[in-house]
Amino acid sequence: MPNGPSDPVPCRVTVCRDCCCGSPKVTGIDHAAQTARLGQEAPVRVSGCLDVCDQANVIVVQPSAAGRAAGARPVWLGLVNDPDATEDIAAWIRAGGPGVAPLPDILDLYTFTPRQRRASPGTSPGGGG
Per DSSP, what are the bridge partners of residue 61? Predict the structure, then answer.
């Protein structure tokens, strides 16, 4: 079942846009256009540093309600630095995303598992890096 009006909670996308991702350090990509393009397919949240700077630009696709019901977990995509990769992600989201549509083979090149973050004393897990 693809995302859309029939899915009460569609896929959601988080794009890292902080110290490395979305910055001039990652050349050759229009970061604003990438965020806008993904926003045409799903709600997009712009995040501070996700602490995986070696994977800049990082995009995380959260499953829809249907995807979560099927057992899907968020999919982390790194080194998303060209418009073709952005289009591949947009097409996958349009098809339903994690748990609903199979991950296209081409996106296997971008998936990674983030290292576990350690919280400093007195800070919450998930703080920037």
Answer: 13, 75
